Amino acid sequence: MKTHLNTLFITTEGTYLAKDGEAVTVRVEKETKLRVPLHNLDGIMCFGRISMSPQLMGACAEANISISFLSPEGRFRAAVVGFSPGNVFLRRQQYRLSDASDACGAISQAIVVGKLANCRAVLLRAARDSTDPNRSERLQAVAGRLAANIIDVRATNDVDRLRGLEGEAAVSYFSAFNDLVNAAPDEFIYTKRSRRPPRDALNALLSLIYALLTHDARSACEASGLDAAVGFLHRDRPGRPGMALDLMEEFRPFLADRLALSLINRRQVTEKGFDYLETGAVKMDDATRKTVLVAYQERKQEVITHPFLGEKTSVGLLIHLQARLMARHLRGDLDGYPPFIWK
Question: Among 31, 33, 48, which residue's Cα sits nearest to residue 3?
Fold first, then answer.
């Protein structure tokens, strides 16, 4: 359990929340672990098997404190809110700013800077850890190109230009992927990014982890009152979760790509776990999928210091915190959206 940005996150299975005067008490096995005044909260997020008293739900509804219930993996299930919780005003502002070129450009710029900075950090860390000087030199060269891309991104807030720069940087970043694979490079060779369907084992692995990250991002939007369909960097498209895709961009290299590479380099995932179909598609078998799901949830339990808040939190809560920061920026409480930049 942890409090961030006036939001109480409950992650311990079996926790019971109750109203105690003008405060919420958090009990685990009938022992009070935490007591937080209601006036200090604007949201409670419950992950997994969490229960609470009807009196607390009523008090939160009257105080405009939203309660969100999510699966242990972070998938949104339901929310309890009172009348006029304020989300409608947040969403209307989100719609206004998505149509305002300057505001849309400023937010998109922050998102792209965060993504490219994290891509560069992945390459530089791999270059430092590599025992092959030639590989290290190649990784540093690509990191240098990304640094130049970041300078170009900071110089414009034109959304179309930002999309183009992000695409150019992605090509450079993925060109270094083969140098990031230390184990069994003959099994996981990167040629190009392929989706629907993935055409090789590496793309199949990335696609699954990106899908998990997308679910987490959509849950974060729902729990924070954002409209997951209306983004800034990603254009509106029927069925496309633009806001969720915006939020997850910063986490693709830090969480998804690093996890995929870790699974490969530690030989937790091998090419034997993938079936090559006659259509050219590649399908992951059940055992490998389970390995990836377990590894993803374990990675989300790791503790990290949030670079903007300066507080320790779990990796799994990072995207929820970013959604809350986005909401605060849209409401005008923050001058700009602070992207997550891995340090």
Answer: 33
Q: Specify the DSSP element, H or E, that contains 180.
A: helix 177-180
CB atoms within 10 A of CB 1: 16
- Per-residue pLDDT of 250-261, as tens digits, reads 999 999 999 999
Q: Under 8 Å CB-to-CB from 160, ≥6 apart: which residues?
A: none
pTM, entire model: 0.81
Q: At the fourth CATH level, which superfamily is domain 2-85?
A: CRISPR-associated endonuclease Cas1, N-terminal domain (3.100.10.20)
Q: What is the phi-psi region of residue 197: left when phi exceeds 0, alpha when psi lies from -120 to 50, beta otherwise?
A: beta
Q: Could you give the percent of the chain with pLDDT greater than 70?
A: 96
Choose the CATH number for 91-105+179-331 among 3.90.190.20, 1.20.1250.20, 1.10.10.10, 1.20.120.920: 1.20.120.920
Per-residue pLDDT tens over the stretch 98-111: 999 999 999 999 99
Return the domain boundaries, the chain: 2-85, 91-105+179-331
Using CB atoms within 10 A of its CB, is residue 325 exposed (0-12), middle (13-18) or buried (19+)? buried
